[in-house]
Each structure stands twice: as C-alpha cells, then as structure tokens.
Amino acid sequence: MTPPSERPLTAMIDPAAGPPDCTAYEHNGGWQATRKALSSLAPAEIIDMVTRSKLRGRGGAGFGTGQKWSFVPKEPATDRRKYLIANADEMEPGTFKDRWLLEGNPLQLIEGMILAAYGVQARHGIVFLRGEYDLARTRLHRAIGEARQQGWLGENILGSGFSFDIHVHSSAGRYICGEETALLTALEGRRATPRSKPPFPQTGGLWGAPSVVNNVETLCNLPHIIANGPEWFAGLGLGEDGGTKIYGVSGRVAKPGAWELPIGTPLRQIIEEHAGGMRAGYRLRALLPGGASTAFLDADAIDVAMDYGSVEKAGSRLGTGMAIILDDRTCPIGMIRNLEHFFAQESCGWCTPCRDGLPWVERLLDAIEDGTGQEEDMDQLGRHARMLGAPGRTFCAHAPGAMAPLASGLKLFAADFAAHIQQGRCPQREGARP
Amino acid sequence: MLTVENPLPVPMRREILALAAQELHPRGAGVAALRLVQARFGWVSTTHLREVAVLLGMSADDLDGVATYFNLLFRRPVGRHVIMLCDSVSCWIMGREPLCAHLCRKLNIRPGETTADNAITLLPTVCIGHCDHAPAMLVDNTLHGDVDTTTLDHLIDTLRDTP
Asked: Can you say how many angstroms the Cα of residue A247 is from the centroid of all Cα atoms in its chain?
C-alpha cells in the first residue's frame, strides 16, 4: 500500500489537468475515509479522532476543530435538523488558499464535509461560496453532481443508514459573511450582520438549528485524519499544532504563491525557499503574517515558526497563514491606508464604534498620506487603535482585526508617520497613490 | 422584447419559486433569486425586485435592504461588460493604482461609471483571491492576473468588439 503523502491536501491537485473526477479521486486514495467512517466508526469516535489530531480551524481564529464539534447536541441526524456549513467566503485580503483547494480538488472538500456531518450527525450541508469564485462554483457543482450520482451523497450513503446532501449557496460579496454568525444571517436571507453569542451556532445556528461552520481548508484535512489516523496527522506538524498548512506569500517576492508545508514551518523558509526571496532591488521591510487583519511583524521576526502559539508570541496572529510582504520601496502609510479603506468599506454598520470609527481612521490616514495631516492626528489614530482594538468594544472581531495592522504600524512606522506630517507629503511616492 | 420594465418571464418565476422551495423559509433564496435576475437582465430593477419580493413573501423594502448590502448585486444599470479591478492590499502593492488611472484615462470614466457607448462599467472590488498574480481583476466573472497596461489595452479593445 502506498504510504500517505506528507502533503495530503494538495497531493491530488494538478492545475494543468484540472480537478480529479470520482474515479481518479478514489484511485488516489479518496473515499477511503468515508468507507472507514461509515462502516466501522461511531460519530463520537470521529470527533475524538479529530480532537486527538490537534487540528485547529484554518479560517483564521484557530479554534480546536474537535472541540468545536463537541458542543453540538448528540441526537442522531434523523431526530433533529442540524447543519454542516463549509465557509468558502474567502475575502481576507492577501488570502487565496481556499480558492486553490476548491478549484483543485472539490471532491476532497465534499468528503471532508461528509465526515464532519457524520461526526456531528447533520443531514444538511451547505457550501457558503463567495460570489466571485466562478470557476470554483462550476467545479463544485460538477463534483457534487457526480458524487451524488455515485452514491456518496444523498440517502443512506453506502447502506450505512446515514444520509447527507450538499447545497451550494453562492454569496454576493461582503467580507463580514466570513464571520460565522454573519454567514448564518446571510443564509437566512437577511443583511449579513453578526449575531450575539450565546447561543453559539453549535446549539442555535441556522434557522435556530445546531450548526457547525468550518473553513474549507479545515474540512479538507478530515479525509486524511480519518484514513491515516490522528497520530499520523499530529506528527506532520513541527510543533504544538497538527497537520500541514497552506502558506502563501504575496507582494514583491520572486515567486508569489502558495505551498502546503508542515505547520510550524519557519517564515524565513517560506519566504526565501518557496517564494524565492525578495525581487531584485527590493528589501523586506515588514510583513503581515496571516492576512490583512493581522499585526505587522518587523523584518527581523522572519525566523518565527508559523504556528498559532509562535506567531502570537512574536506579536501577531497566524490568521490564514498567507503572508503579505511590505518592501522597502512601498510606503507603509499608504499600505495601512489601503487596509483601513477595505475595513471601513466592509464594516457591516451594525455597531457604532465600527461603523463610525473605521471611516474616521481612513480619513485621518488619507490626510496624512496626502500631506495635510496634523500632529494631533496621531493621537486620534492611537485612540482608535486602543478603543476599537482587541479585546474590543465592538459587536464582532471586524474592528479589532482592522486595528491590528494600524496599532502595530503606529509603532513600527512611527518615523514614516512623522515624516509625512512634517514634510507635508509622502516621502516615498512609489507604490503610493498617484 | 425582454426589458427591465416587463414582468419577469414565467420560467424565471418558476425557477425562483423552486429555489424558495429548497429553503426552510423562502427568504433564504433571496440572494440566489436576485442573482438569477441579474444574470438575465444585467442588474436588478425596482420592478423586478418587487416581483421577487412577492414571490418570496417579503416586503420590497426588506429585500432591497439585502440587495443593496452586497457588492455583487447591482441596483443600477451596468454596461455590457463589467470590469472589477481588485483594490485590496496585494494588488495595491503591485501597482493597482497606476493601472486604475490608465484604465480610467483609456475608458474616459471614473470607477463606478459606465462608458458612453455602454460597453464597459468599471468597478472596484475587494480581494478576489488571486494575490499571487497581482494586480488582478475580474472581467464578466473571468479572472485575469498579472495585468499590465499592454494586456489591459488589448482586453478593452476585445471587449468593445464583443456584444
């Protein structure tokens, strides 16, 4: 028997050939986990295996996946309506990993959803897909149709008595839909505003029913955990966390891209070996290690291990694990302004500090970037970073996420802010607004 | 002739009702129904929004609240083609602003506007998940990466010639 791949998530992804069909998927080891789970494992054993695998959610928050599922009421799927939802609303700037998985091997996501649904005993599956992912939608529909036709989805799968099917909800573009309670509100046909917790979705989610919302990458790990065992999966990680992680790099590096690597791979290795280092003529100045809502790390933090605990100790978050590089010829104030424009625009408007605070931050940064900023603007920015930042006085994590690059940027780029205000212009025009 | 002032075609009304029937409550099909209308007519007119609201058992204001919330639902007419240029951070770093300026000059419009010949609407969009090929954009749902002024000029000329 072929040993399992050390890059299980991407082993079957071949952009040139397109995604595997059901036959190719099975030939390469797919559906093994579903056969094993439905023939010989109880739902509680699935949850236990996922807990022991040390899999943490790959959407950004990093909550233990098995632990999350353990909060779901245990009634069998036939007794109670429950939902298993794949969060495929990937809109975090700098993040493009879920697209790769969705387009490259949608059957892997489908199998992951079957296993998760069996674990929590949900009959109803939904992929909440961002509206812009057109190719992913087409491939997902095709894969679901094929899986259904071959009996992997639908009534009484493999004669096990377990029934599960998947519906694709194509969203229409709002970052806040990635927040799990806002996602549920969107699925109910309302403006996607976050909900107060408790009740947590696991007990009172979509239409009031128990609901589990997991990120695409999280779900794609499940077939490999169940097929190869939790100890094997945990052993793939280099530190405390289990499994591999899809890391990515964008910005002025030689080879921007994404790679599946053991979780805990040092950032230096990701940037220098996989992304090919900085482009000629550019120097690494700082970076956002895990997407737009993470704090800047200075270039000297490049040896940090990319796992949840290590990045937190370094002063930021692993987030989605997709690093955005700030080079020495790009204006850091312009970059922060771009980030805050995004967060201000994407605030759902539900709570006042976020709705009013983020546009205020954006206007202050506009003024500083355009050369009309005043010294006192720095105090205002600092006040916003404190009042809107973590732990936060806002309804959800949107504003604290928005403040992470600002608060860290105010410290790291203090001299750049001062130069803009004193000189009345952006001293580093390249990369800044024309 | 099919226009935004006429009632929705009967097959589309049936399709919307079928979508609603798949949901636990019909309003769950709101976004899907509006996307269906937009795919056919290019945008969601008030006439059509009201009809969809009736089909889903919602008030028109309630449904309009949903329609105006989402970036990809258009409540005003757009051109025959829609260019959505990513304005998020990786694209910004890789030269999105000069590219946008070039596009505006070439089309003689600003972001949010449609060309005089009704061929192209230019809209900003948040990160489209193509950051490894920044700057990136969507043209009528088709993804384009590593865009520069040369590829952009060629693309626009092609779009203008395409009905």
From this structure: 11
